[in-house]
Design brief:
It is a single chain. This protein is α+β, with helices and mostly antiparallel strands. It has a single domain, classed as 3-Layer(aba) Sandwich (Aminopeptidase). Helix content is about 20%, strand content about 30%. The longest helix has 15 residues. It starts with a strand and ends in a 14-residue tail after the last strand. The relative contact order is 0.18. InterPro entries: Acyl_CoA_acyltransferase, GNAT_dom, MshD_Acetyltransferase.
Length: about 200
């Protein structure tokens, strides 16, 4: 999956970027971008507690590349259990984040294209809901609302009005309550060598 998008620059010359699946070679560029866009406190957020030691959900990590192939945007989705339903069963969902665009490329629609690509692919893969912590004024245009996450909590401090959800399948989060817990694929750690 790749989408090419032309957007106008301030000088009215076209700027092209591509939305594509993240690959292992993007790690250093992605982490550098996140440091620039989100600052040094990004690893202390509640969402990070759910991502630590995990791999993104299968097929749900995307980057935006400029015409030279540089990573200028990123978004990833993570498997979580969104509390339990009325019958006591875990409610599988996705946690979106972080979404970031290189500050030098803001205002070109890159974040919106990354969001649409991530939501569409999550829907195509049969997921029921996506949750995130973010600015409601930005994310409501994609269908995320605080009311859908009202009975769920994050592991650690979070602002209730910034905890938002989008149901990809109608009614998926009805009756879901409790704390989000990481699920899905774990990050493989290198084996520990024992001293002889």
């Amino acid at each position: 999956m790749a989408a090419v998008v032309d957007t106008p620059r301030a000088s009215f010359a076209p700027s092209t970027f591509v939305i594509a699946p993240e690959n292992p070679g993007d790690v250093v560029a992605r982490e550098s971008l996140l440091d620039r866009a989100m600052g040094p406190g990004r690893r202390r957020k509640s969402s990070e507690k759910l991502r630590r030691g995990q791999l993104p959900a299968e097929g749900l990590a995307f980057v935006a590349r400029d015409v030279d192939g540089h990573v200028i945007g990123t978004v990833r989705l993570w498997n979580v259990e969104a509390g339990v339903n009325r019958e006591g069963g875990a409610v599988p969902a996705l946690l979106l984040g972080p979404l970031a665009v290189d500050p030098a490329h803001e205002g070109k629609g890159i974040g919106g294209m990354l969001m649409r690509a991530a939501i569409e692919e999550a829907r195509n893969r049969g997921h029921g809901a996506i949750l995130l912590v973010g600015d409601a004024a930005y994310y409501e245009r994609f269908g995320f609302f605080a009311a859908r996450a009202q009975h769920l909590v994050m592991p650690g401090p979070f602002e209730r009005n910034r905890f938002l959800a989008l149901e990809l399948k109608e009614g998926w989060l009805v009756g879901a309550a409790g704390m989000l817990v990481a699920s899905g694929r774990k990050l493989a750690l290198p084996p520990v060598r024992r001293a002889a």
